[in-house]
Amino acid sequence: LHCGNDLCSSGNSITLLSNKGIAGGTIDIATASNGFPLVLYSKGDFSASTYDLTLIRCQNVQCTNSNEFILKPSLPISVLFASSLIIGNDDLPFIVYRKADQTLHSYSELWTIHCSAYNCSSGINEQFIDVVTHHLDQSTTLDDRPSHAVTAQDYPLISYYEADNGDLKLVY
Fold first, then answer.
1. In this model, does residue 140 exceed pLDDT 50?
2. Is 11 within 8 Å of 5 (Cβ atoms)?
3. Pairwise CA distance, residues 147 & 166, whole Å
4. Which member of 2, 52, 146, 169 lies 3.0 to 4.6 Å from 96 by CB, making a disulfide possible if both were Cys?
């Protein structure tokens, strides 16, 4: 949705970004210095029990022209209900995502991707951060989606919740 005014009360336009598979997990958006959006989402194939971590790079503000890049193909179906996207001071995408244990969902790994190209089509730098444990009790809903920002020096700050110990953590 591209809002026509600051309240999104009129002049709005909606653009279909993808109809290739089922979008699942979190969907995140960031705006590059040119004003054009980038959209991060997971594109699912339930028959194969996999998701692709996918980035859409818009060629204009309304995103009527865009390119889709699969950053991480064929991840387990449980991986991407927790991902986050920002644009760093270098104007390049920086992504944090959780890679979950597919069998028990009792732990997941926190990973980062810093793209060395605006569209992430080449030079993807991936880094393991931490193992995050989770309660198996489904009666409690916790927001364990990672969140992140960058400092003026373009260093990442990553926050996330570790449910097992009740710890809110910050990586800097």
1. no
2. yes
3. 17
4. 146
